[in-house]
Design brief:
single chain; alpha/beta; inorganic pyrophosphatase (n-terminal core); Diaminopimelate Epimerase, Chain A, domain 1; 2 domains; six-stranded parallel β-sheet; six-stranded mixed β-sheet; 12 strands; globular; binds guanosine-5'-monophosphate; binds manganese (II) ion
Length: 329
């Protein structure tokens, strides 16, 4: 038996008898995080359990069409009386948000994740970096639980998989990913419906923001590195929101010479966010970890307080160039 089968088996055994479960994911949830959380909750509700959907902040308007979003709550009940918690798609417990200490009081603390740089936490862990997405894992858990998967849950899981595989394009996409996606289509999901919601959602402001951001493109190391940036002034000028920058990094990533694409984002209150995407052999998760972040080999990031775009570039670029030269990325 593989270690992953063993952890899945233990999680199934633990969850079966539980009645009151909290489901959580990382702050600023992306499609996989939110889709996995909502689907997991829906599946557990279908098994007759009471579910609390915890999310620190309101979720991105890019994902608020997902069935179940209206159930997300940002305040934990006091006392937080749950007989299990499931953390989904979260590679580092500190990304669960400010309620971390309260969440840690809940046991068993089940962790399901696929980040390669996963930092272990919780009581029962199923961590598999070979999975395309946490959504793919939640599907397998539902099957192992013998649970019914509703259309709503299937829709959320398909969205999760499409989001984390870049529409079945990234390196993480496997035959198993397609098999799970096929099962979800059999359950009634129309890929076209998901694609329309996920991708055909631009406002004029968002397109204007893209125009401004692409204007910042700079190339380094003979075209191997591309950097784009966004400032608060660009948001103000275009009327677009922070979430609207989602997927912009795929434009510099698409350049034929690029090995690593970087997107430096000026946030509010002195925060700077950095997203990185790599192709092939490059491992940006390691690089992100040296700056306190994490992620996957080909998609990673970090956040810094009290910095500037210029300072981030000055710190990051030499480190990246050094690793590219040493092929140590
Ligand atoms: P994105 O660039 O889309 O925000 O994130 C890409 C990947 O890197 C995601 O898997 C995300 O979980 C991870 N990531 C982004 N920012 C951080 C961070 O600040 N800390 C950690 N541990 N992972 C991050
Ligand atoms: Mn994910």
């Amino acid at each position: 038996m593989k270690k992953s089968d063993e952890s899945l088996g233990r999680i199934v055994a633990e969850l079966k008898g539980k009645k009151n479960v909290l489901v959580a994911t990382h702050v600023f949830p992306d499609g996989d995080a939110l889709g996995s959380q909502l689907a997991m909750g829906n599946i557990l509700e279908g098994m007759g359990k009471k579910v609390f959907y915890y999310s620190e902040e309101r979720i991105s308007h890019l994902y608020d069409y997902m069935p179940g979003c209206e159930k997300l709550e940002s305040r934990l009940p006091k006392p937080a009386v749950f007989d299990a918690i499931i953390s989904l798609d979260c590679g580092d417990c500190f990304r669960l948000g400010e309620a971390l200490e309260d969440l840690r009081e809940i046991h068993p603390f089940v962790v399901i994740d696929h980040h390669s740089g996963h930092k272990e936490f919780g009581d029962l862990r199923w961590i598999d970096p070979n999975r395309s997405s946490t959504g793919e894992m939640v599907y397998e858990l539902a099957v192992a639980l013998g649970a019914d998967i509703s259309y709503e849950a299937a829709f959320c899981l398909f969205t999760a998989i499409v989001a984390d595989t870049g529409s079945f394009k990234y390196d993480c996409t496997t035959a198993s990913t397609f098999r799970v996606a096929g099962e979800l289509v059999d359950l009634g999901v129309k890929p076209y419906d998901v694609a329309r919601k996920l991708f055909d959602n631009y406002t004029t402001g968002r397109l204007r923001l893209l125009e401004a951001v692409l204007g910042t493109l700079e190339m380094h190391a003979d075209g191997q590195i591309a950097i784009i940036t966004v400032t608060q002034e660009m948001f103000a000028r275009t009327g677009a929101k922070r979430d609207d920058t989602e997927d912009f990094i795929n434009y510099p990533r698409a350049l034929n010479t690029v090995k690593v694409a970087i997107f430096i984002k000026e946030g509010i209150d002195g925060w700077i966010g950095v997203s990185m995407r790599a192709k092939g052999e490059c491992d940006v998760a390691q690089l992100a970890m040296t700056f306190g972040g994490g992620g996957h080999r080909n998609a990673a990031g970090y956040r810094l307080q009290g910095s500037t775009i210029a300072a981030v570039r000055t710190a990051l670029l030499p480190e990246l160039l050094r690793r590219l030269a040493a092929k140590g990325l």
